[in-house]
Structures are given as structure tokens and as C-alpha cells.
């Protein structure tokens, strides 16, 4: 044993190794720059991409159903403001989700781990703003029993439910980004 240690010290001094078996004790520090606990750029982008796709589905349903309700009015400005607000928020969040999906798809293939800090920061601010907007619009547009009735009531309720589901997926994304930022070393 002592002879092997002496041999290893000699090979380290000369910089030449006699066999690959001697390299088994060598370990390389391949820490993830900008991320903690092994969460890499690809994992971060994949999880956020899945959550963005869920948000996109819920938001498209929410604003499509609400657009049908608002379109039922002879003049669209006659629709209640709270329904128009839900429609506008749905369109805005859908647009930005499509942009995020394109960006995350491109960054997920990137091998530069230093970009993950920027992804976390941008996603955090995006999620904070749009979680508040979508949750607020869903809460404001929620149908009351004395308001709309029949098919209109059902459509508004469905649109509001989809907007709530969309805001919950934004909150999941916010939670994930917060976890990543918290474990970042």
C-alpha cells in the first residue's frame, strides 16, 4: 500500500500516469455555475417549458370562451368591463407565454450554464406580474347568481375557472423558480 502511494506521488510529480487504474482517485469539480444542487440549464428550461405549456392551454381556453361571451353582445363595449378585462389579460398572458416557450426552447438547448441565473430572474418577475393579473381578472370576472344567466353564466364560469387554473400554474412556476433561486449557491 505504501509503495503504491509513493508511486502515485512520483507520477503526480512527473505528470505522467502509468495506467488508467491510477486515475480512479482523481475527481473533478464540475459544479454548476449559477445553479444549486445540480439543477442545470436543461432541467430548468424543461420544467418551466412544461409549466408554460400548461399555462398556455388554460389561457387559450379562458380567453376563447370569454371572447365568445363578449362577442354575443351587439356592441362589444356593452359587455361588462370585468369580462373585457379577463379577455385582455388572457390575450396578453397567452402572447407572453408563446414568447417564453420560444425562448425556453432555444435556451434549453444551450450549453451555457451562466444563463440560468437570467432565466430565473426574468421568470420570477414575469410570474409575479402575471399571477397577480390573471388571479385578479378571474376573481373580478367570477359570475354572481344575480348577474348573467343560462348559457352566458356557464361560459363566464368556465372562462373564470380556466383563468384560475392558469393563474395556479403560474404560481407553480413561481414556486419552482423560487426554489431554484433559494437553493442557488
TrEMBL record:
Cellular compartments annotated: Membrane
Transmembrane feature ranges: 44-65, 85-107, 119-142, 162-182
Start and end residues of each stretch annotated as Disordered: 1-25
Organism: Dunaliella salina
Keywords: Membrane, Transmembrane, Transmembrane helix
Protein name: MARVEL domain-containing protein
Ranges where the MARVEL domain occurs: 44-169
Coiled coil: none
Composition bias type Polar residues, residue spans: 13-25
Membrane topology, from the record: Multi-pass membrane protein
Pfam families referenced in this protein's UniProt entry, alphabetically: MARVEL
InterPro entries, sorted: Marvel
Amino acid at each position: 500500500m505504501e509503495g503504491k502511494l509513493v508511486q502515485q506521488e512520483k507520477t503526480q510529480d512527473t505528470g505522467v500516469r502509468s495506467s488508467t487504474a491510477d486515475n480512479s482517485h482523481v475527481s473533478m469539480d464540475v459544479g454548476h455555475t449559477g445553479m444549486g444542487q445540480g439543477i442545470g440549464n436543461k432541467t430548468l428550461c424543461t420544467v418551466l417549458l412544461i409549466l408554460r405549456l400548461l399555462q398556455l392551454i388554460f389561457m387559450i381556453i379562458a380567453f376563447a370562451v370569454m371572447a365568445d361571451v363578449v362577442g354575443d353582445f351587439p356592441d362589444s363595449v356593452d359587455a361588462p368591463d370585468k369580462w373585457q378585462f379577463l379577455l385582455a389579460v388572457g390575450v396578453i398572458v397567452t402572447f407572453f407565454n408563446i414568447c417564453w416557450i420560444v425562448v425556453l426552447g432555444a435556451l434549453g438547448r444551450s450549453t451555457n450554464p451562466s444563463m440560468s441565473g437570467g432565466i430565473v430572474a426574468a421568470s420570477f418577475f414575469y410570474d409575479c406580474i402575471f399571477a397577480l393579473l390573471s388571479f385578479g381578472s378571474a376573481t373580478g370576472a367570477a359570475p354572481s347568481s344575480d348577474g348573467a344567466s343560462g348559457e352566458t353564466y356557464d361560459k363566464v364560469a368556465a372562462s373564470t375557472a380556466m383563468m384560475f387554473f392558469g393563474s395556479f400554474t403560474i404560481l407553480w412556476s413561481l414556486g419552482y423558480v423560487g426554489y431554484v433561486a433559494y437553493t442557488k449557491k
